[in-house]
Design the sequence.
């Protein structure tokens, strides 16, 4: 797949405000500061489509981007240590859970993981929750350029071993670097395959 056109459509504070569910959509989520905006910009060949910020918690709404007039890429608020009030975090959590459980045209959610880190409880809990809810998802290990290839491979192997405590079969996984464009073709190919199954 080649992304020739990417445009921002709307931001929503509730899944009921999202665009009509006539096109397939694929959502991206991860802990604050995992590199989500940079990855979205890399995938879409658009340097400023998603707002990149050094300040975690910048994304606070459900953001829809229309890709090639065929499908939606959805940028979801990050979770984790963003410095916002507890009540605000709880509101984000409810908004995200409702969207993930009730959005009828959601084809897959891509969970972003920092490839340099050991398994974090908040990520593992979220991954397991997706499994319990039977929501299709894939894992994207980000920031592969920040360490050697061997370290990245070792960290991901450790992560998979940890997940096998809970999972018989692991979801698809991708390794990416927004700086170097690593993983872009593999991700776009996977998205194309997903889109072809729902058309």
Sequence:
């Amino acid at each position: 797949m080649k992304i020739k056109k990417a445009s921002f459509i709307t931001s929503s504070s509730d899944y009921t405000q999202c665009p009509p569910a006539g096109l397939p959509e694929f959502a991206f989520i991860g802990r604050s500061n995992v590199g989500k905006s940079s990855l979205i910009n890399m995938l879409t060949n658009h340097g400023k489509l998603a707002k990149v910020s050094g300040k975690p918690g910048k994304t606070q709404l459900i953001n829809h981007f229309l890709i090639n007039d065929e499908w939606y890429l959805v940028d979801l608020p990050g979770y984790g240590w963003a410095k916002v009030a507890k009540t605000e975090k709880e509101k984000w959590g409810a908004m995200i859970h409702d969207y993930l459980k009730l959005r009828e045209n959601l084809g897959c959610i891509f969970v972003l993981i920092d490839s340099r880190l050991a398994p974090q409880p908040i990520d593992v809990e979220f991954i397991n929750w997706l499994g319990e809810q039977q929501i299709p998802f894939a894992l994207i290990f980000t920031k592969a350029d920040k360490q050697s290839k061997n370290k990245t491979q070792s960290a991901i192997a450790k992560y998979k071993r940890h997940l096998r405590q809970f999972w018989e079969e692991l979801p698809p996984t991708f390794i990416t670097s927004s700086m170097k464009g690593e993983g872009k073709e593999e991700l776009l190919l996977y998205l194309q395959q997903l889109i072809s199954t729902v058309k």
Summary: The beta strands are 6-12, 25-30, 62-67, 71-75, 106-114, 137-142, 173-175.
